[in-house]
Amino acid sequence: MTVPFKPVLAAPCPPNLYYRKQIPRLPRDMSSTSQYASVHVRRDHAHMKWSKSISPVLTVSSGETVTFDAVDSSNGQIGKTSDASTIPSMDFGLVNPVFGPVYVRDAQPGDVLKVDVEDLQTADWGWSAIIPGFGLLADEFPDPALNIWHLDRDKGFTLFKDRVRVPMRPFLGCMGVAPASDDELSTVPPTAGGGNMDCRELSVGSTVYLPVQAPGALFSCGDGHAAQGDGEVCGSAIETPMKATLRFEVCKGQPGVTAPQYQTPPNSQLQRSIPDFGRYATMGIDSDLLEATKQAVRNLIQWLVATKGLNRNEAYILASVAGDLQIAEAVNMPNYEVSMSIPLGIFA
């Protein structure tokens, strides 16, 4: 049983749990390896694993803010002018870089690192892809496909096939801390310390709570998304370079927090850059939860093809960036029920 994490239930954290040690500010030099480096993590501060053996590029105190300049999840291998022929030639050993790590003074195992998402700025473009062998329905989509998006940050949405408006809600797909073990963990799956969580709720105004597992926490982030549906079913969101501004606090003595937790601000649902015409949902029902999930996605793809003039690849990508998976029922054994819905306003 997990001990309730009081800082999540109240904002700000109560003073006895909210650690803000005041350390005199010292002059900072511009060396990325200095203990007092600039509070900016650059694009060349990338790494491809979670490990406590990676030297920090920056050291900050509890209460400080850091800006991260992150390339997209392809590590620059996909650009504005790319097409589907780019995908087979990609080096997937370079995919999903994270940027850091940042050492937070006085963060120790058993503490929690509180990360406030203060600002997220996307590039003016992004991409979504069907990558052979990857995604929920990989067996059904063997060929590569790529969509390049123009991101209009002022309007708050991006157009798909010149007629479908996908609302933008930027977030970082990857935020995490180094593991306690000496293992080197891939940046692709999520871990107990965070990592590639791909949770679209972690947008501006949200707070993430990560269990510190190694001294200094050694926080890194990356994988900027301009938009994503719950599930990211085709394997990609709207992937984009991103500049992220995050604020760090150390909450002392929280050993009951063993996996990430988060808190969203009021009214954090999708911004109304599209009209609210309700949602259309399809269901999947099976005794196997994964199979029920696949059914729900497959049924939504079929509906999009039948009613919206999309081909299957286009429908799969749209489901990934704008559709939401939900476990609708988990107690009426032996079957599970999963739904996948999409806002009808995007077609207005």
List keywords for this structure.
single chain; 348 residues; mainly beta; Jelly Rolls; Endonuclease I-creI; seven-stranded mixed sheet; 10% helix; 32% strand; globular; disordered N terminus
What does this structure look like?
The protein is mainly beta and 348 residues long. The protein has 2 domains: 6-263, Sandwich (Jelly Rolls); 279-347, Roll (Endonuclease I-creI). It has helices spanning 6-9, 289-308, 312-322; strands at 40-41, 46-47, 49-50, 58-60, 65-70, 98-104, 112-122, 125-130, 145-150, 157-160, 164-167, 171-176, 185-186, 190-191, 194-196, 207-211, 219-225, 242-251, 261-263, 279-286, 324-329, 336-343. The strands form 6 sheets. Strands 2, 4, 6, 12, 14, 15 and 17 form a 7-stranded mixed beta sheet that branches. It has a 6-stranded mixed beta sheet with strand order 1-5-18-7-16-19. Helix 2 packs across helix 3 (312-322). The longest helix is centred in the last third of the chain and has 20 residues, at 289-308. It starts with 5 loop residues before the first helix and ends in a 5-residue tail after the last strand.
Radius of gyration: 21 Å
Mean pLDDT across residues: 89
Number of domains: 2
The oligomeric status of these chains comes to single chain
Q: Tell the overall outline.
A: globular
User: How many DSSP helices?
Assistant: 3
Order of helices and strands: HEEEEEEEEEEEEEEEEEEEEHHEE
- Which CATH architecture of the largest domain? Sandwich
- Helical content stands at 10-25%
Strand-pairing-aware structural class? mainly beta
Separation of the first and last Cα atoms: 46 Å
The CATH superfamily of the largest domain appears as Acetamidase/Formamidase-like domains
